[in-house]
Amino acid sequence: MKNLLKTGILGLDELLGGGLPEGSSIVVSGPPGVGKSNIAMQYVYTGLSQYDEAGLYLNIEESVEDVVEYASGFGWDFNKYVELKKLAILDRSIFEKADLELGMDIELLNDLIREMDVKRFVLDSTTVFDHLFADPRPKRRHMIRFLELMKKNKCTTLLIAEEYESFPGKFIAEHFISDGLIVLFWSTYRANTERCLWVVKVRGNKIVSDIRSLKITDKGVVVYSKEVPFTLLKEGG
Ligand SMILES: Nc1ncnc2c1ncn2[C@@H]1O[C@H](COP(=O)(O)OP(=O)(O)O)[C@@H](O)[C@H]1O
Ligand SMILES: [Mg+2]
To answer: Which candidate in 120, 139, 171, 225 could, as Cys together with 175 as Cys, close a disulfide (CB 3.0–4.6 Å)?
Structure first.
C-alpha cells in the first residue's frame, strides 16, 4: 500500500480517496480569492503539527512576513516551525539574484529539501515558470524535471496554478504533467457567490469527482464532501 498524506482539510481527504500519494505532484488551480493559498498553507501546517513532517513553502506572490501573518490569522504558528528548522518559507527574492537560471534554483531547492528532509512542498504559484520561460517547451521540460526530482525525494508537491477564467475553460500543461488536479472555481447564482472544489484526478486513488462547496473559516478550509453546492442545484437553492 502506498503512503497517503492527509491534507487535514475537513472533507477534502475523503474526496481525494484518503489523501495525497507520497511523492506525487498535485496541481491546485483557480482564480483569485478562491482559497488556493489557504489549502496550501493548511496542507503544510497539518504535516508540521500532526505528522512531524518538514515543509517548504515557496510563495512568489507574497513576502515571507505576509505568509507568516496570514497563517497566524488561522491560528497557525509558522515561525515556531521555522525556528525548529522544520519549515522553510521562501519568497521571490530567491529568483532575483542576477544571472540565476531556474536550473540552478532547482538544484538549490533540491539541496534544501534533502537537508531538511522535506515531505510537503508547495510552489505558490507556477507563474514562476511563466516568468522564466516565454517559450512553452523549455517551461514544460523544466517542470517535468522539477517534478521528477520531487518524486525522487519522496516529497509530495502542491503546485498552485493561477486560473484566469472562473471555470476551467481549457486545460494547460501543468494539468497533464502532474499526478493530480484539484480545480477551484467561483460559482454564482443571481447575487450569490460560492467557492467550489472539483477533484479531477489523483493517479492511483479512488477519488470522488463530484463538485463540492468549500468554505474559508477562522480555522481554515472546510469542504462539504456530501452536499451539492447550492448555486449548482437545479433550482439554484
Ligand atoms: N477567517 C476567514 N474567514 C473567511 N474568509 C477568509 C478568512 N481568512 C481569509 N479569508 C478569505 O480567503 C480569501 C483568500 O484565500 P486565498 O487562499 O489567499 O486565495 P487564492 O486562491 O487567491 O490563493 C480572501 O478573499 C479572504 O477574504
Ligand atoms: Mg494565493
So the answer is: 171
In this structure, is residue 13 part of a structural domain?
no
- Report how far apart the first and last C-alpha atoms of the chain are (Å, whole number): 41
Would you state the pLDDT for residue 103? 60
Domain CATH code at residue 175: 3.40.50.300
CA of 183 relative to ligand 1 center, distance in Å = 16
Q: Is 220 in the pocket of ligand 1 (CB under 6 A)?
A: no
Nearest ligand to residue 36 Cα: 1
Residue 205 lies in a domain: no
Helix (H), strand (E) at residue 200: strand 192-202
The answer to whether 223 and 9 have CB atoms below 8 angstroms apart is yes
For 81, the domain range is 23-190
pLDDT < 70: residue spans in the chain:
1, 95-104, 168-169, 235-237
How many structural domains does the chain have?
Answer: 1
How close is the Cα of 220 to the center of ligand 1, in Å?
A: 9
